[in-house]
Amino acid sequence: LIPRLYDVTGGQVLVDGVDVREFAQEDLWSYLGLVPQKSFLFSGTVGSNVRFGLPDATDEQVWDALDVAQADFVRDMPEQLDAPIDQGGTNVSGGQRQRLSIARALIRPCPIYIFDDSFSALDYATDARLRAALAQRTRAAAVIIVAQRVSTIRHADQIVVLDGGRVVGVGTHEQLMDTCETYQEIVFSQLTAAEAS
Prior knowledge:
The chain is an alpha/beta fold.
C-alpha cells in the first residue's frame, strides 16, 4: 500500500502526513527502499543489479551495500562485481537473490525501507547478522519488515499482528506476549518457552 502497488479501498496511507495518492509515483518511490517478497534480479552483473538502486554508485558504495546485506559470497566469485547474473537471478540461490535485492535497496539512503518477507531464504545466523548491520545502516529511517519468522521482528519497536487480514495486536514482543493470543501461538510454534522470553 505504501508504494502504491495497490491503492487503498478505504481510509488512507500517509507518508510524512501526506496521502500517498497525492505523490507523483516517481516522488513516492524516491522515498522508498523496497525489497519485495519475490526477489528479482536482472540479467547483467552483480554490480549492475546493485547499482539499479543508485546508477552512479561507486564500487566502494556497492561493496558497502553488499557488506551490510551479508552478501559475502560475491567476494568468492571469480569476477566479483562483474560476475554475471542471469535474468531473474536463476544462477544464484534464493538466499543470494534476497541479499543482492537487499543491497540494491540499501545502496540509496531513503527515509523509508520496506522489507516484504525479504529474509525468509536466509539461515538464522545470516538473518541475525543482517538485522544487526541493518539496524546500524537504517538508524535515521523508518523500517517496515513484513515477516513470518518471529526472530526477524522480535526486537522491533512496534509489531503489528495480522490474522486473516485484520489487526489483532500491536505492541512490542513483550507486550504482545502478555496481550495477544494469536502472537503467542505464532511465537510458541517457532520458539521454545525459554527462547520466547
